[in-house]
Specification:
The chain has about 375 residues and is of the alpha+beta class. The protein has helices at about 1-10, 60-70, 85-90, 100, 135-140, 175-185, 200-205, 220-230, 250-260, 275-285, 310-320, 335-340, 345-360, and strands at about 15-20, 30-35, 40-45, 50-55, 70-75, 110-115, 120-125, 150-155, 160, 165-170, 195, 210-220, 240, 265-270, 290-295, 300-305, 325-330. Helices cover about 35% and strands about 25% of the residues. The strands form 4 sheets. Strands 13-10-12-11-15-16-14-17 form an 8-stranded antiparallel beta sheet. Strands 3-4-8-6-7 form a 5-stranded antiparallel beta sheet. The protein has a two-stranded parallel ribbon with strand order 1-2. Strand 6 (about 110-115) and strand 7 (about 120-125) form a beta hairpin. Helix 7 (about 200-205) crosses helix 9 and helix 11 (about 310-320) crosses helix 12 (about 335-340). It starts with a helix and ends in a 12-residue tail after the last helix.
Length: about 375
């Protein structure tokens, strides 16, 4: 890996990280792929300590199967194909519905091994749940889109497999669904996932009409039943109840549908103002093919068939006035280059980001347009 980066430096070439090749499938003109798909080794699995070490090229579905044999699982459910790799999921930093309880992809990271832009290997963090205090560079690289280096190995925290995994859903008008979510959270609900879906996505996943509130609970059987009953009591009488299949099947479909949108924007809104963020995005970018909101965190995902870079920039300018970042999680290489994956940052944040990038990639070899 280091040798390939050094060859690119010698040739004055740029590289883009490539795992399964499903998330950013196209390369900008003149950019070489840096293939990580062969880094599939799973080692250091310690079920009792709830930790595992996996190569960046390890497919998430293969890792999940290995972990399940030992009674543990990884709370990493990004949008996209089941064959998305560990490194790709961590580099994108794109969270799935499980972030409601378990946090974002970077929250699953205990440590990383990264190859920097000079070809040198760098170890960040550790292999255990308790780690040293201080500035956690691994959390910077996770979600950095590959701009700070190539993740080659990840040390990840795990959880014991739950005895029960159930979901319930309610559908209705947008205002009714939003009010129901607010009531559930005010009553103390803290499910594994609490997701609001717009009508096209609700129809694709639940064969239901209208907006949908979908709640997932995982844990002991009695506790799961009790928690879902408590949520149901807050739903009121105006919503229609439906029951998705048991287990993870409906959420696997969510990953596939959300991962199939050619463009995916992610807005970090105030949890109480997520519907404003949806309206703002559709006002600038047009009607969404899908909307999925992790209400607890204010994470608003907007799926689109296409988008103009100018529309992304305008959305970011409007969102910035409310302090909301807008990440371009997925788009073709031309839009990524023109709009930037992150877009404009506050001056202090941008200076720090550029300093870190120069430190990790002094030769500017990683072709990631963070700012456009």
């Amino acid at each position: 890996m280091g040798a390939e980066i050094r060859r690119a430096i010698a040739d004055a070439a740029l590289v883009q990280l490539r795992g399964a090749g499903t998330w950013w499938p196209d390369l900008p003109p003149g950019v070489r792929p840096l293939d990580l798909s062969h880094l599939t080794r799973v080692c250091g699995l310690q079920p009792a300590d709830l930790v595992v070490t996996a190569g960046a090229g390890c497919p998430l579905d293969a890792l999940a199967a290995t972990l399940a044999e030992h009674g543990v699982w990884l709370a990493l459910d990004p949008p996209g194909s089941p064959s998305r790799t560990v490194g790709g999921a961590l580099s994108s930093g794109s969270p799935g519905p499980l972030a409601a309880r378990y946090g974002s992809p970077r929250d699953q990271v205990l440590g990383l091994t990264v190859v920097a832009g000079n070809g040198a290997g760098v170890r960040m963090g550790g292999r255990v749940v308790k780690n040293v205090a201080g500035f956690d560079l691994a959390k910077v690289v996770a979600g950095g889109q590959g701009a700070f280096g190539a993740i080659v190995e990840a040390h990840l925290r795990l959880h014991a497999l739950p005895a029960a995994d159930r979901s319930l859903a309610w559908t209705g008008a947008l205002r009714e669904v939003a009010a129901a979510a607010t009531r559930a959270l005010a009553a103390g609900a803290a499910p594994a996932a609490l997701e609001i879906l717009n009508p096209p996505l609700a129809h694709a996943l639940l064969a239901a009409d209208g907006w949908a509130l979908v709640v997932r609970e995982m844990g002991g059987r009695a506790a799961v039943d009790e928690d879902l009953l408590a949520v149901e009591k807050t739903m009121g009488t105006t919503l229609h109840r439906c029951a998705p299949e048991a287990g993870a099947a409906p959420w696997h479909r969510w990953r596939g549908v959300a991962g199939g949108w050619p463009v995916l924007l992610r807005i970090g809104a105030d949890p109480a103002a997520w519907s404003d963020a949806v309206a703002l995005a559709e006002g600038h970018c047009g009607s969404a093919a899908g909307v999925s909101v992790t209400v607890v965190r204010g994470t608003v995902r907007i799926g689109l068939a296409t988008v103009e870079p100018g529309a992304v920039r305008a959305l970011r300018a409007s969102a910035a006035r409310r302090g909301w970042p807008v990440v371009l999680d997925r788009a073709d290489a031309g839009v990524r280059s023109a709009a930037g994956v992150w877009g404009a940052l506050q001056p202090g944040t941008r200076r720090l980001t550029e300093q870190l990038r120069r430190a990790f990639d002094p030769n500017g070899v990683f072709a990631v347009p963070l700012f456009g």
